[in-house]
Design goal:
Elements (H helix, E strand, L loop, with lengths): L1 H18 L8 E6 L15 H10 L5 E2 L6 E2 L11 E6 L5 E6 L13 H12 L14 E8 L2 E6 L6 H5 L7 H4 L26 E7 L3 E6 L11 E6 L3 H9 L16 H12 L3 E7 L3 E6 L29 H10 L2 H8 L4 E3 L22 H10 L2 E2 L10 E2 L13 E7 L3 H15 L4 E7 L1 H9 L5 E6 L9 H4 L18 H12 L5 H18 L2 E14 L2 E2 L16 E2 L2
Parallel strand pairs: 1-10, 16-17, 16-18
Antiparallel strand pairs: 2-3, 4-5, 5-7, 6-7, 8-9, 9-10, 11-19, 12-18, 12-19, 13-19, 14-15, 20-21
């Protein structure tokens, strides 16, 4: 009966598409994708933007993410999450988490979604027999047990407040449907026909069909506990982003991109603002969760060594003659006009950031004051650090005096700045930096490198300063592997600038193992970390790009949030 119903729905969906995206019976959402067909819609092993976006509408998750704060929430609503957990508790010693689940969600074949489905999926991950990349949770979790249909008990190997997010990182599979296909061997998950045709799901949509090189369709799940209005959701393949935009502007699609990949490209953003203001369509803008920065090598470049030995004892790494002094880093942060970088390099579609992270992340303190553009203050700070204009010629480099902490007296203030070739944004930013630092007597040898070579310089800690970007940052902005000695490993560590601060390390440890893991308390700890990193500048924080959703006016009651396009899918209606 289920298969017959599905066939009839597919025929109805096709008829609606032929008749127009905004026709009858709730209409159809249509997005565009230039990344190729989704090849694996199994949420345990999906690993690209389109697949992950589809998973959000097809499969349940352990809990909902608050679309405003991006933090896990008990109960609540986010139609892109389909969260099961009503609430959870943590034992006094922090080693046990107990989740209480809803009892009113079913798979689309009528079978209840239970705690046993979650345990089954975790056990598959923990087996090590699948190709799932979502293994971070295995570092801290010892066991997952479905005590009954609505209760999950998680035992930890080590206490970790970050385990909450990790427990929700791999989707939930229907045990009753998948287990009989495996013949007792979890490795068979990778090759299931189900991965391309997920016929048993529990989201607001059911899987419809994949037409190779053309489109993927989803069909409304009328048996969902909160059914949505749109009759279907279609993702059309297009050859490139420009074609997708033109289809949207021609009324052939209801959105630019998809739920998982949605931004209007920077060169078109102002056009879209103008046209949205004229009433042609709707837009929503937010700051992305990644940033561009310059990393300062704080150690002796000529002799890279790890930050600590095997017993955790600090190793003397020497000091970089320039960047070993925090006053030098603070002077540079005030010597360049951030507006010029953002306008000249990022086409104005970015925002200055002041520490690790962006305002899109709850661990980032958005109330921090930015470093101002103040060349006079920068020169005064450099003079205090022992670098002066010895010949009253601003076109020549400053030189070190006896007051310089680490530079040889008489040596010029000159350094090498590297970035990856072909990245026009960073190349433009480097040119601005080179020009404006040159105006106050800092000679910058700006060079571009092929990306693979750049990474070798970076990981080998063989550089003065390096401009690069990090993206998809964690919501809590936890970066212990980036800014503590544990990550300072020559040849393979993320703390390639050799930064160490005992208070910062202490704060990271507190945030990780805070008893009860209270969100507000953890946020306060990460905000203190943000402010330390802002002041000490192991990285010179530059900018985070803007992202922009665009949606047709026919999509009514649309309420987007940063990183969540359709949090209120159940309220959306599509007008003729």
């Amino acid at each position: 009966m289920y298969k017959l119903t599905r066939i009839l729905l597919l025929l109805a969906l096709f008829a609606l598409l032929v008749g127009g995206a905004s026709a009858q019976d709730g209409g159809i959402l249509i997005g565009t994708n230039f990344g190729g067909d989704p090849t694996n819609m199994n949420p345990l092993i999906s690993n690209n933007t389109v697949e992950l976006g589809l998973n959000e509408f097809l499969f349940p998750s352990l809990f909902n993410i608050d679309p405003v704060t991006r933090a896990p929430m008990m109960g609540g609503r986010n139609d892109q999450d389909n969260g099961l957990a009503l609430d959870w508790s943590i034992s006094d010693d922090g080693s046990t988490y107990t989740f209480n689940l809803r009892d009113d969600i079913t798979w689309n074949d009528g079978t209840p979604v239970t705690a046993h489905d979650y345990q089954f999926t975790f056990d598959a991950l923990a087996s090590g027999l699948t190709s799932s990349p979502r293994t971070d949770v295995l570092q801290s979790v010892e066991t997952v047990e479905a005590v009954d249909d609505t209760t999950i008990v998680v035992k930890l190997k080590i206490n970790s407040c970050r385990v909450i997010e990790e427990l929700d990182d791999f989707g939930i599979l229907p045990k009753h449907h998948i287990e009989p296909m495996l013949d007792g061997d979890f490795s068979n998950i990778d090759t299931l026909e189900y991965n391309k045709n997920p016929d048993v799901t529990a989201g607001v949509f059911n899987f419809g069909a994949l037409i190779a090189d053309q489109q993927t369709s989803l069909i409304r799940n009328d048996n969902h506990w909160m059914p949505v209005s749109p009759e279907g959701y279609i993702i059309r393949n297009v050859p490139d982003q420009i074609v997708g935009i033109e289809q949207f502007l021609a009324g052939e699609a209801t959105s630019v991109g998809t739920a998982g990949s949605a931004s209007v490209p920077p060169p078109r953003m102002q056009e879209f603002r103008d046209r949205a203001e004229a009433g042609e369509f709707q837009i929503y803008e937010y700051v992305d969760d990644g940033l561009t920065f310059v990393g300062f090598n704080l150690a002796d470049r000529s002799n890279p060594v790890n930050g600590q030995d095997e017993d955790g004892n600090a190793i003397d790494q020497g000091k970089h003659p320039l960047f070993g002094d925090v006053r030098v880093r603070q002077a540079i942060a005030q010597a360049v006009n951030y507006d010029d970088i953002i306008e000249g390099a990022a086409e104005g579609e970015a925002i200055q950031v002041n520490s690790f992270g962006t305002p899109a992340l709850w661990g980032y303190d958005a109330d921090m004051e930015p470093w101002p553009y103040d060349p006079d203050a920068a020169l005064a700070l450099l003079a205090e650090a022992g670098f002066v204009d010895h010949d009253e010629d601003p076109s020549t480099p400053l030189v070190a005096t006896e007051d310089a902490l680490y530079a040889e007296p008489g040596s010029e203030f000159a350094f090498e700045l590297l970035t990856n070739s072909g990245n026009v944004v960073r190349e433009a930013a480097g040119t601005v930096i080179q020009d404006q630092l040159g105006q106050i007597g800092i000679a910058v040898d700006f060079q571009t490198q092929e990306f693979g070579a750049l990474v070798q310089f970076l990981l080998g800690q063989d550089f003065d300063a390096i401009m690069i970007g990090f993206t998809n940052l964690d919501q809590d902005t936890d970066a212990r592997n980036v800014f503590t000695p544990v990550g300072d490993l020559v040849g393979g560590g993320f703390n390639f600038v050799s930064y160490s601060n005992d208070r910062l390390t202490e704060l990271y440890d507190q945030a990780l193992s805070l008893p009860g893991c209270d969100f507000a308390e953890r946020q306060a700890l990460y905000h203190e970390i943000s402010n330390i990193l802002r002041e000490e500048l192991p990285w010179w924080w530059l900018f985070a790009p803007f992202s922009m959703y665009a949606e047709a006016n026919s999509v009514q009651n649309w309420m987007p949030y940063a990183e969540t396009r359709y949090a209120n899918m159940a309220d959306i209606a599509i007008s003729p």
